[in-house]
Amino acid sequence: MGLFDRLASCLGIKKKEVNVLCVGLDNSGKSTMINQLKPSSAHSEDIVPTIGFSVERFSTTSLSFTVFDMSGQGRYRSLWEHYYSASNALTGEGLKEGVDWLQDQIQSMKV
């Protein structure tokens, strides 16, 4: 049983499909983090900056993930709110200095 499967079991998550929204500052490593979460057979050799957004899908033994990798560039941040309500989890990547900024962004998406 892998990390995600153990975590889901401990948390009592019964849902088989999980949508994750990954937001954060530009060039903060969001795509790299997502790449490392995927099974090793699905790792990408070259990670390029995300323009707009990209969708990554991968599965573990008991869970199927859809990860929305959102660009951190200012001109694309308005896209974040469109994916927020459909997500089961939210992750934010960036330097410690970006924590306040990320919190403000999340608060602005809440309805």
From TrEMBL:
One of its GO terms (molecular function) is metal ion binding. Keywords: GTP-binding, Magnesium, Metal-binding, Nucleotide-binding. Gene3D superfamilies: P-loop containing nucleotide triphosphate hydrolases (3.40.50.300). It comes from the Eukaryota. Mg(2+) binds at S31, T50. GTP binds at G24, L25, D26, N27, S28, G29, K30, S31, G72. The keyword Transferase does not apply. Pfam families: Arf. InterPro entries: P-loop_NTPase, Small_GTPase_ARF, Small_GTPase_ARF/SAR. The keyword Metal-binding applies. PANTHER family: ADP RIBOSYLATION FACTOR-RELATED. This is ADP-ribosylation factor-like protein 6. It comes from Aldrovandia affinis.
